Amino acid sequence: MIVVWLKRDLRIDDHAPLAEASALFALDGVPMIALYAFEPDVWSAPDADASHLAFVRECLAELDTRLRERGGRLVYRLGDMPEVLETLHAEEPLDAVLAHEETGNSATYARDIRVARWCRRRGVAFREFRQHGVLRPNPGRDGWAERWERHMRRPRLDAPERFLDVGESRVPAASLALADELADRCRLGPDTRAALRQRGGEREAVALLTSFLMERCPDYRETMGSPVRAWDTCSRLSPHLAWGSMGVRRAYQGARRRLEQLDRLGETDPRWANSIRSFLSRLSWHCHFIQKLEDEPDIETRCMARSCESLRDGLDPHTAAARLTAWQTGRTGYPMIDACMRALVATGWINFRMRAMLVSFASNHLWLDWRTFAPWLGRQFLDYEPGIHYPQVQMQSGTTGINTVRIYSPRKQVEDHDPRGEFIRRWVPELAAVPDEHLAEPHLMPELLQAMVGCTIGVDYPAPIVEHRTAYRHAQERIFGLRATAEARSEAQAVFVKHGSRKRTRGRR
To answer: Are residues 250 and 368 in the same domain?
Structure first.
């Protein structure tokens, strides 16, 4: 028999390993099992969260139903790979293992190497298929965008019509209850976001893509930076792309078809086409960043620019710990920072600009080393994608050596994106009665006004943990001082050659 090993590819559409298994059945009558292993090694990692597991579980339940409609089923096992394969092989000899390539964290990277080594020792064919636009191996960044575009335009693989399952008597399926046992073993705790997070499953992903392209997208380009409106105007597909309940190619081709339809219909409102083009560029961006981790797995734990390794050394450990706790709990004294963090912790999602602001604030205002908070932050994102997360955290922390250093003004973010305080008042109710003109910096309210609105700074809501201008100047001096050195300039060139985007406007060239 053959094993289709499922990882972050929990769908039936455009799924190369499942399509191959169905083709082998049609040609030679080869039976298969679709395997999902609940792996303690993977789910014990510091970036794993109970909400991730709950979302995966919802995806698996739907996928099992769709496989059973076609003569297959999902087989669940609790254990680490390749030990799970070893046990299966002893019970029912395996001929091949089919899987998608995965660019994950260090735990899954090491696991994939062990699986490949086990297959070679046992004489089991191991074939991995390209899933998104990430190249393995990558011939280089020159021409990467064109190769990505060609891959996205290739015909999508339809959901297979029929499988031949080996049968329950030969390989028992077990059940999704193994997820509960895994959660206990890995001490993941309950899914604290269950009431507010998005739901998993391929049908949910398709519904989101349809509603975005047909109804919600006109204001996408203009509102994606708004913590007030982005919840509705963004596609919200990111968890499904991260866990594989939708492939990037399906989203890309759906957006392309919608552009063609708008052209045929003679749509005169430019917002539709402009927003869809922005969405398409972000699908490319999605794979562009994952390619960085694919090409250099060390950037999960090491600065992309090695000269930045000791950039944030010297901060007193007690001060660093207090700052980290305040940031994690939304108690920094900066309303936009605190509202975004509380919203993220409660729901598992916040829009991209606010993510960048949160990381920049932790790195530049609080002067925290990105490694002290990156795994914890990964746990908060329902759409946690290691290949996007770690390069982005480093980019906002100024440790890539090549990207523009952005240090956000918390006051300006309020003025630009929440001037009436809709978002802040929802997530920081202590500030509900604070007048709009003081909402960005409530610590500047006169004491009498604080008493009148029932919000005493330092009691009901904290004073700013750091002073903005002082922290801003300190970060600029340290980062730009380092970048001015000959070593950093030389290193930046090497980083750009390996990781830099080649898509530039003529003016920027």
So the answer is: no
- Residue with structure tokens 């997070």? 197
Q: Is the pTM of this model over 0.85?
A: yes
Gap between the Cα atoms of 250 and 10, Å rounded: 14
Structure confidence at residue 505 as a pLDDT band (50, 70, 90):
very low
Kindly write down the DSSP assignment for every residue of 326-369, as one continuous string: HHHTT-SS-HHHHHHHHHHHHHS---HHHHHHHHHIIIIIS---
- pLDDT per residue over 1-18, tens digit each? 999 999 999 999 999 999
What is the distance between the terminal CA atoms of the chain, rounded to a whole angstrom? 54
Instruction: Tell me how far apart the alpha carbons of residues 424 and 262 are, in angstroms, rounded to a whole number.
Output: 37
Q: What would the pLDDT profile of 113-159 be if each residue is shown by its tens digit?
A: 999 999 999 999 999 999 999 999 999 999 999 999 999 999 999 99
Q: Which of 293, 7, 280, 235 is nearest to 145 (CA)?
A: 280
Residue 118 and residue 85: Cα distance in Å, rounded? 9
Query: How would DSSP label each residue in 51-79?
Result: HHHHHHHHHHHHHHHHHHTTT--EEEEES
- Residues 39, 81: contact at Cβ < 8 Å? yes
pLDDT digits over 429-463, tens only?
999 999 999 999 999 999 999 999 999 999 999 99
Would you say residue 395 lies in a domain? yes
Residues 394 and 478 in one domain: yes
- Predicted pLDDT at 243: 98
Q: How far apart are CA 318 and CA 324, in angstroms?
A: 10
Instruction: Select from 296, 325, 346 the last residue of a domain.
Output: 296
- pLDDT above 80 for 188: yes
193, part of any domain? no
**Nearest Cα residue to 485 out of 310, 356, 292:** 310
Number of domains in the chain: 3
> Whole-angstrom Cα distance, residue 354 to residue 406?
12
| pLDDT tens, residue by residue, 462-503 | 999 999 999 999 999 999 999 999 999 999 999 999 999 876
H/E run at residue 3? strand 2-5
Residue 190 lies in a domain: no
Domain contains 504: no
Q: What is the CATH number of the domain that holds 448?
A: 1.10.579.10
Give the integer Cα–Cα distance in Å for 278 and 221: 7
**Cα 204 from chain centroid?**
18
Q: How far is CA 450 from the centre of its chain?
A: 40
Range of the domain at 246: 202-296
pLDDT at 504: 56
Q: What integer best gives the mean pLDDT of the chain? A: 96
Mean pLDDT score, 338-361: 98
Q: In this structure, are 323 and 287 located in the same domain? A: no
CA triplet 256, 262, 265: central angle to 5 degrees? 145
